[in-house]
């Protein structure tokens, strides 16, 4: 009795091991070329700034729109872009405007990563010329008034020169604004070279039915 039970157990185990795996639908993978000039719309994941960032600092972002070719999404929204800071110029005293430059060189979609070529994105602080002119002009006018009160004529000229000098000194002591790109900032960059991506497609209902 014991021998018979063992025999049945052995046959059952053999049969189970020999059973073929249940059929599974195989996903299709095809290659699609994204042409040069295609826009990638994305948002920054990291905050960067001309006063705080450094060259070679890593920068990441994610696509806010899928890349669509011939009506078919080939790179989904949320895919990661990565690159680095390539240029940093903190604010200076009147000599120039602050700026920061970043460049992205990699796109990750799902488990696949692709090298990309795209122009650098450079942002500069707004010009301070008008503000600086006003800072000089107002003290100069005040100086002219003061000179006129003291003696008029020549005194007004001297007073204007003194007032203008005071204004210039004030401007030279001030820093211009820095550039800050916060996390979430929306940006767009265009591919300067085409890239070929792998697109995975789920099997059709007909293909799945043929395996059952």
Ranges with pLDDT <50 over ≥5 residues?
1-18, 132-150, 155-173
Q: What is the alpha-carbon Rg in Å?
A: 34 Å
Query: How helix-rich are the residues, as a percent range?
Result: 25-40%
Average pLDDT confidence is: 75
How far from one another are the termini? 40 Å
| Largest beta-sheet characterization | 7 strands, antiparallel
- How many β strands by DSSP? 13
Strand content: 25-35%
Instruction: Determine the number of helices (DSSP H or I, runs of at least 4 residues).
Output: 4
The arrangement of helices and strands along the chain is HEEEEEEEEEEHHEEEH
The shape is elongated
Description:
Mean pLDDT is 75; it is low at 1-18, 132-150 and 155-173. The protein is α+β, with helices and mostly antiparallel strands and 212 residues long. The chain is elongated and about 60 Å long. It contains four helices and 13 strands. Helix content is 31%, strand content 33%. The longest helix has 22 residues, at 129-150.
């Amino acid at each position: 009795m014991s021998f018979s039970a063992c025999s049945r157990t052995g046959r059952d185990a053999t049969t189970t091991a020999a059973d073929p795996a249940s059929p599974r639908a195989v996903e299709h993978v095809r290659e699609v070329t994204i042409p040069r000039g295609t826009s990638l719309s994305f948002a920054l994941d990291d905050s960067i700034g001309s006063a705080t960032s450094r060259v070679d600092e890593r920068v990441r972002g994610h696509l806010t729109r899928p890349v669509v070719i011939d009506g078919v999404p080939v790179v989904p929204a949320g895919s990661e872009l990565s690159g680095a800071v390539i240029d940093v110029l903190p604010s200076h005293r009147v000599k120039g405007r602050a700026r920061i430059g970043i460049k992205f060189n990699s796109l990750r979609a799902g488990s696949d990563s692709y090298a990309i070529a795209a122009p650098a994105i450079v942002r500069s602080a707004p010009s301070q010329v008008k503000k600086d002119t006003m800072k000089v002009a107002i003290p100069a006018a005040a100086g002219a008034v003061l000179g006129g009160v003291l003696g008029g004529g020549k005194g007004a000229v001297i007073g204007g020169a003194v007032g203008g000098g005071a204004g210039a000194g004030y401007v030279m002591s001030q820093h211009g604004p820095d550039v800050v790109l916060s996390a979430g900032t929306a940006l767009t960059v265009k591919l300067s070279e085409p890239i070929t991506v792998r697109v995975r497609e789920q099997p059709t209902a007909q293909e799945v039915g043929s395996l059952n």
